[in-house]
Amino acid sequence: MPSIDLPQLLAFLWFAWVGSVTPGPNIALAVAVSAAHGQRAVRPHMAGVALGVTAMMTLCAAGIGAALAARPTTSAVLQAAGAAWLAWMGLRMMWAARGPVAGAKGSDADMDAAATTPATTARRAPGRPTVLGSAAFQFSNPKAWMLSLATVTAYADLARPAWLAVALMCLVFAACAVVALALWSAGGDALGRALAGNAARRRLLDASLGASLVATAAWVVLR
C-alpha cells in the first residue's frame, strides 16, 4: 500500500525550496530576461526548467544520471554547450547596450523617451528563452545535476513504492523552481520598469545583466 514519510517530506520541501531559490544560472537568466522583456517573457523559461528538472530527476532515479556524471567527457560537452548558449544571450545583451539608443537623437529627454519604445527595447533585449531551450539547458547546469543527484540519494525513502517517491521529488522540485523563478523575475521586471525612463541607466543595466550571464557561463565551465 502506498505510504509517505511526512517528516521526511517536510524536510525535503525545505531542501527543495532552498536549492531552488538560491542564485544560479536559471535565476540569472530569469532576472536578465524579465528586466529586458517583462515578467511574462520568463514563463517559457519556467516551464522549461520544470520540464528539464523532472526529466533529470527521473534519469538520476534510474541511475542514468550518476553514470553520465561519472563520464568526464560527457559532462564537459554538456556543460560547454549550455555555457555557450548562456554566454550568447549575455553577449547579445551587452552588444545591444553598447551604442546610443536606436533612433534617438537630440536632447537627453528625447533619448529617454526613445528608450521606452517597443522597437528600441527589442533591439536591446536578449533573445527570449524557449521551453525546449531551457529544458535542455538543465542538462548542462551543474547546480541542477548536484541537486538532482543529492535528492535521489538522500530521499530515496521518501515514499513507497519507489515510483511514488520519484513522482513526489519531481513535483516538489518543479513547483519550487517555478515559484522561485517567478519571485526573482518579478524583481527583474521591477528593476527594468524603474529604469525604463532613463536611457543611460537602462543601457548600464542591460550591459551589467549581460555581463552577469557571461560570468555565469564562465562559472559553469570553470567550476
Task: Tell me briefly what this model is.
By secondary structure, the chain is mostly helical. The protein has helices at residues 6-21, 25-37, 43-61, 64-69, 72-96, 108-114, 118-124, 131-137, 142-154, 162-194, 199-222; strands spanning 3-4, 159-160.
Q: What this model shows, in words?
A:
The protein is mainly alpha-helical and 223 residues long. 76% of the residues lie in helices and 2% in strands. It has 11 helices and 2 strands. It has a two-stranded antiparallel sheet. Helix 2 (25-37) packs antiparallel against helix 11 (199-222) and helix 5 packs antiparallel against helix 11. The longest helix is centred in the last third of the chain and has 33 residues, at 162-194. The protein is globular, with a radius of gyration of 20 Å. Residues 101-126 have low confidence and may be disordered.
Mean pLDDT: 80
Class derived from helix and strand content: mainly alpha
**How widely separated are the two ends?**
44 Å
Instruction: Name the helicity range.
Output: over 70%
C-alpha geometry: globular
Spatial order of the strands forming the largest sheet: 1-2
